[in-house]
Amino acid sequence: MKPYIKERTLQVAQHITETGDTIRKTAQIFHLSKSTVHNDLSKRLKKLDKKLYTKVQNVLDKNFAEKHIRGGQSTKIKYKNK
Which residues neighbour 37 within 8 Å (Cβ) at sequence distance 6 or greater? Predict the structure, then answer.
């Protein structure tokens, strides 16, 4: 693995664990595609740091479980502002 990919993967993982952001928001912050962030966190991180990988997976699982709630709130705000 190239050094810059390794560093990027660890930075993205650290950001996710500290902030609890979603993959989409993290991708925007780091100016990467969602696919790149997802591959970094699900495939590359597992090979680099298992402990950090577990923490990241817990955050991503939580975000996935709350996805339908955020979508409902977003729709509510959208129609409230119309």
Answer: 12, 23, 26, 27, 30
pLDDT in tens, the chain (82 residues): 889 999 999 999 999 999 999 999 999 999 999 999 999 999 999 999 999 999 999 999 998 887 777 777 777 777 777 7
Quick one: tokens of 21?
Answer: 């952001």
Q: What is the pTM of this model?
A: 0.79
The whole domain housing 19 covers 3-80
Whole-angstrom distance, CA of residue 82 vs CA of residue 26: 29
